[in-house]
Amino acid sequence: MTDQDLVRRLLDIEEIKGLKARYFRTLDQKKWDEFGEVYAAAAVLELPEVEMVVDGRDAIVKMVSEALSGARTVHHGHMPEIELTGPDTARGTWAMFDYVEWPSSDSGSRVGLQGYGHYVEEYAREDGRWRIARSRLDRLRVDSLGDLPVAP
Amino acid sequence: MTDQDLVRRLLDIEEIKGLKARYFRTLDQKKWDEFGEVYAAAAVLELPEVEMVVDGRDAIVKMVSEALSGARTVHHGHMPEIELTGPDTARGTWAMFDYVEWPSSDSGSRVGLQGYGHYVEEYAREDGRWRIARSRLDRLRVDSLGDLPVAP
Amino acid sequence: MTDQDLVRRLLDIEEIKGLKARYFRTLDQKKWDEFGEVYAAAAVLELPEVEMVVDGRDAIVKMVSEALSGARTVHHGHMPEIELTGPDTARGTWAMFDYVEWPSSDSGSRVGLQGYGHYVEEYAREDGRWRIARSRLDRLRVDSLGDLPVAP
């Protein structure tokens, strides 16, 4: 590769990191319009732990925003491994942590989870910007908040 | 932009990431002299959750070092979004986690917190190095350690 | 430095970040062959908290894989500070979190830990790839799972 190619490659990797950062931030801030922008139009989301596959940006935004309605959420990403597979395609993995809490049940016990896993993803440049084309969340473990004490 | 410009831009982003890494590390290691070096002389720190604004590097170091005196702390940053706004200015956001514990109270209950949020920041190159010019911490949630069991 | 040198430097930093990402991922996925590949043949691992020093890639893989046998683990890295010290050598620090749980004891109490600290490391390019040449884990704190409630 020429130096110019290497610079473009580094810029693409940096942009994909920024893309995934927007995914996490807009998810926790519930900025659903911006959240939708991180996905390619035909994006696919796979959640093997709940045997769910969601097809298309609009369906993904609808499912995620409804599932987290009323919840306080924290999602963190870590340690990307990103590989460019073509001029406008890439794949990557990220370690992740999420902390999701819905309003307490009548019994006062906490409802939610703290989870850990890896995103395994594909990216595509579409309309001039990198977007998530395919995302699968493989879990390492999920702890139920119902087994933890009630927070203030 | 020329390739040379792009390379400078990537280097600046990398240096700002290293700057924020030094912020987190020196904070948890309580290396207050090095901690002060991450700030511009006229830096402003905003903590909306406690309605506090601190003006200037020296005041920030004094406030933070006194607030964390005697505490064991862990601070982690995640998922930066960094935008260069000029040759010597930039802005950025970071997801964050902190775990702060002060010595236990007489009753034996834990005193401290585990918190989550976003830093919203501005950076400036001053005396040849990138520094934090403005930092605001927006919280997603804070859990009190008093509601968690005592650790060893 | 020429621009070409700067580009090489940025690529080396990116590769070292990818190296450490592979360390964390293969550790939690228990892919021990791939895990071994992240180390230089003569790598040294220092664990001051347990007064342990392990010499050489093979001994490191043996020790780590045996220590974590049967355990569910999560390891996250954060906020690298990486410095190239020569064309084929570098050093770096990373903040870290780990969550390790072995099968419960007969009494039903949880066995494991949630820990926090910093890796202080040296890297070397060996056989054309960056590898961990020396790694020391300095702890900020370790919480025993025995003091936390049983998870499902």
Notes on the structure:
The structure is a homotrimer of 152-residue chains. Chain A is 28% helix and 49% strand. By secondary structure, the first copy, chain A, is α+β, with helices and mostly antiparallel strands. Chain A has a single domain (3-147), classed as Nuclear Transport Factor 2, Chain: A (Roll), CATH 3.10.450.50. Chain A has a six-stranded mixed sheet.
Topology:
3 copies of one chain form a homotrimer.
Chain A lengths: L2 H26 L3 H6 L1 E9 L4 E4 L1 H11 L4 E15 L2 E14 L8 E16 L2 E16 L8
Parallel strand pairs in A: 1-6
Antiparallel strand pairs in A: 1-2, 3-4, 4-5, 5-6
CATH architecture of chain A: Roll
Q: State the helicity of chain A in percent bands.
A: 25-40%
Largest sheet of chain A: 6 strands, mixed
Fraction in beta strands of chain A: over 45%
Strand order of the largest sheet of chain A: 2-1-6-5-4-3
Chain oligomer state: homotrimer
Task: Tell me the greatest interface.
Answer: A-B, 27 and 22 residues
Estimated structural class of chain A: alpha+beta
Overall tally of structural domains of chain A = 1
CATH class of chain A: Alpha Beta
- The shape of chain A is elongated
